[in-house]
Design a protein that fits this description.
The structure is a single chain. By secondary structure, this protein is an alpha+beta fold. The protein has one domain: SH3 type barrels (Roll), CATH 2.30.30. It is built from four helices and eight strands. A hairpin with a 6-residue loop joins strand 3 and strand 4. The protein is globular. The protein starts with 9 loop residues before the first helix and ends with a helix. About 3% of the residues have low confidence.
């Protein structure tokens, strides 16, 4: 039996070549969790039957903590969808897009509507901001909320590529 070789996806090669992956901290500055329906509070998002995971997959919707400040307090919390993974990096890097409950911003080309469902675990209709990708470490993920199918992940990647094409 041959061992599967870890390689970067075409999408990851592209975003790394153009240095377009942002640190997740930047998302919390631009999109404060306090302005979202969950207000950055874990208890507003976590379902009673939520489980802790240490392995996350493409398509998972996760609740991400920002980082630990010097005084040991936690930063803001936000929802992201994992659209790719860099299994070659140590530690493993998840590549994600921010989820926002500001559905009135669905009118912007970069924002894709994501309707709440039992599968995705969202409690409100939301948007996925497809114009920016973020590096998310497993240690920054508090828990998984739900998931989306691979066709929807592809839609988000395609949207990202269309938006970024004029800049390349």
């Amino acid at each position: 039996m041959r061992k599967k070789k870890n390689t970067l996806s075409d999408f990851l090669r592209q975003i790394y070549n153009f240095q377009e992956v942002k640190d997740v901290k930047e998302a919390f500055i631009s999109y404060p969790a306090e302005e979202e329906w969950h207000q950055g509070k874990i208890e507003n998002v976590m379902a009673e039957d939520s489980e802790e995971y240490s392995v996350y997959e493409i398509g998972d919707i996760v609740f991400v903590s920002n980082y630990e400040y010097e005084n040991k307090t936690k930063g803001s919390n936000h929802l992201f969808v994992i659209i790719d993974k860099n299994n070659m990096a140590v530690p493993i890097q998840n590549i994600g897009m921010l989820i926002s409950s500001k559905v009135e911003k669905a009118k912007y080309e970069a924002n894709q509507l994501l309707t709440k469902s039992k599968k995705n675990g969202l409690k409100k209709d939301s948007i996925v901001k497809t114009d920016v990708v973020y590096k998310i470490l497993n240690s920054q993920i508090l828990f998984q909320v739900g998931s989306i199918d691979q066709d929807t992940v592809k839609l988000y990647k395609d949207s990202y590529n269309l938006l970024r094409a004029p800049l390349r």
